[in-house]
Write a structure and sequence with these properties.
By secondary structure, this protein is an alpha+beta fold. The protein is built from 28 helices and 34 strands.
Amino acid sequence: MKLKSVIFALTLLAVVIMVFGLSTYHYTVRKAAFAENMTASKAYLVSLKKNFSQLISKYNRITKSLAGHDQLTFVLKDTNAVNTENANKILELYNSSTESAVCYLLNKNGLTVASSNRGAKDSFVGHNYAFRTYFKQAIAGTPAVYMAYGVTSKKRGIYFSHPIYHNNIEGPIGVVVIKEDIDKLEQQLLINHYPTQKGYQDFFTITNEAGMIFMSDQKQMLLKTLWKINQEEKKDLAASKQFGQGPWDWSGLTKNGQDESTAPSGRKYKQLNIQIDEIPSWSIVHFSDITAIADKFNPSFIKTFNFSAMAICLLVLIILTVLNLLASSEIGKRRKFEIALKSANERYSLIFQNAPLGICHYSKKGIIVECNYFFSELVGMPRQKLLGLNLLEAMPKGEAKQALEDAFCSDDSTFEGPYRIIPGHKIIMIRSIYRRIIDKEQNMVGVVGIFENIFDTVKAKIALEQSEELFREIFNNMGTGVTIYEVMGQANAFHIKDINPAGAKISNINRKDYIGRSVKEVYPDVHKLKIFEVFKQVWQTGQAQRYLLTLKEGDRISLWIDHYISMLPSGDILAVYDDITDRKKAEIEKESLQHQLRQTQKMEAIGVLAGGIAHDFNNILFPLIGYAEMLHEDISKENSQHESVEEILSAALRARELVKQILTFSRQAEKDSKPLKMQLIIKEVLRLARASLPKTIEIVKDIDKKCHTVLADPSHIHQIVMNLITNAYHAMESKGGQLRIKLTNVTVNSNNKPSATIPSGSYICLTVSDNGIGMDDITIEKIFDPYFTTKSKEKGTGLGLSVVHGIVKSCKGEIVVKSKPGSGSIFEIYLPAFNSGPEPKEETITESYPTGTENILLIDDEEPIARLCKQTLERLGYLVEVRVSSVEGLKAFKARPNYFDIIITDMTMPNMTGDLLASEVLKVRADMPVILCTGFSEIISRERADQIGIKGFLMKPILKSELARMVRKILDKEEHKTLISSS
């Protein structure tokens, strides 16, 4: 047996040594051939690079020389016909002497202004090459060498560019370029091509860093990519415009490693590359045909010898192996059987002893034949002690008796014992399964029992039942709604799996009737609520989401239900939700109240500002109106200036009305509503507005002269019309247009209501429309909000339409707005018609006033106003003493308290206000009549003046007629209460 093994080993060793020796020899010879080929390739690349570098240097020198010609500088500075022709001759001369493809000149913008091929079909003249890299580099001041596919010539070329300078100009003024065709250079380079042997397929390429083959002795590979590139790299090539627009095919070469590749034909190549110094991004690559080398240095006799020797050795080896196997087969079979049996016993014992269940084999009499360690743990006795014992000695009697009885059963049986404690204080509960062991003759020879501690399982089951009971209790008594949805298919449908009472109440459904039904069946319009999309997203992503479900009644939201949606481990969808409608309504109401409060505070601030402006403006208007009235009296009607004075006085009175509007806005003037004809006020407003509107805006009037009267304050109507006209003007300011104003009687009933809130009845309808820029629905909703404006800061404050809205509502009217972007706007004002009483008449300037001769003490800290009032009163026949200080006025009165018949005092004065002055006067003389004048005051009012004892109350600016009537009435004691002027 040993001799056979030795012979087998020696034969195998001989075969290995012979094969190894031949392989080593063959490898050494082939490696030497590879090294020789690579050395020759490297020498060829160095020679090729040298020739290419000399060629580049030559053209660089020529391009630099060409850039120094004055004729090129002249044409770049002045592109006239003479300079252009001279430049073309220079370029032709260089082109013919260098035998290059073309020479051409670019200005500083990249435009070709001269070229040696100007007469050819593919002339470069007029073409812009600013995008080319050779131009960008040269115009920046650095000569460039650039290889590219011609945009105009559609040929491969190498471009040599050089900047052109001029003495008095900083930086290049242009670029000169010499282009040489690659075809010509390839022929020159191929003259010294590497002499490959017969059968070899060596080749060379010149490629850029992207792998684009630009020069090669293999024409079919030109303008292809050396290696396979992706779409992004192809996009980059197209964007560079260096190699045309493509598409660029792949050469078919596949990399095997860093310097090896395989062609589509299966031939393998060794590549060697060397970088071109003058063009750093380009390299010359030589591919050596290593397949041919391998074939050359692998002769057929070596292959035949190797194969023959290996076949003989393999045959001998097989024969020896067969003999060896036959000799040892019997012993091998026996040993394998023993090993398998031993292994099976070990596996059985290992499985038996480490089983997670107790296993016990006992005889018909109950004697324990075998048991595992887990069984010994369950009964609390060591295994060795258990073997040979009767079950009655090892187990509780109840369990043992059951086990012995089961030995005589024909079927398997299961038994669950009670709880008990084994040594070590471990609580167990045994579940046992018994099966009889039957021999070949169908005789029972024993019983095997499987014992399991089910205490933890039972305990977990009880805990689970308790947990489920607790969950159900919480589920049913939660104040928020909870619904569990079963997902059907790929979340195409959802069925209600369970819903708690709170959820049923919120959803207004009967719980028992809807469990198990599809959501779409329960809620047919559920798709409108978009909650299905949320369910799908939660089911697909597993990420919980919050969703606020709302229901609308018309344009208002009537129901808010806040959902928290998540996915259960079972894959079901859980929705926890609550009806937050009451809370949302409370929040909206709170926000509305806060908004009203803010608006009230803003209006109060504006009121204070407006009152201050009114006070100062009244002091300006007072002398203007007073002196205008004097001029009106002094100039006869026949005088040509009389009409001018009337116009001044009318304008001043209108300004006085505007001040009253400011006071109305600031809540300092009381509303003076009276029956009036709106057409009269509209006529006056249009007369004022026409002068300020540009001629590009045409005013079209449609005023019904028979319109009913309305009950309103004239200044308020004036303010409404003026604001609407101003807004219409601003809407048409850029392009002009037509402004239409219409006034007509309308009757509103249930069939033609312009607004749902307007009651039926007779109305006067004022319509102001334009064909300006118009408004969208969002803007229309906000135009009546204070401070909201679409105008610039110079044209609007955002208060005009807010005031208009307030006036219309105070008159129990309605305002309707119709507009679309680009289609203009229409504002309709509906005011209730007032048909009671006589028709109102236009006010005229009165020329007769009541007079008198009494003594008057006039007190006002504004000297111009004091002088005016003095002159006015003296013209009426009164004797007037003036004081410009409240303190001095009080002294003058106290000095002669019985001399003066009446005191007229201003309200706002330093040191002592008019009401305090009146109080001091009345302390001295209780029956002393006092008239208080003010342009604005938050302190004094009708009630306050009456309490002090003031007899008259005049608002500035004061008309002569008002002053005359008030003084006369008080002196004649016609009124016992405090008199307030109508202004």
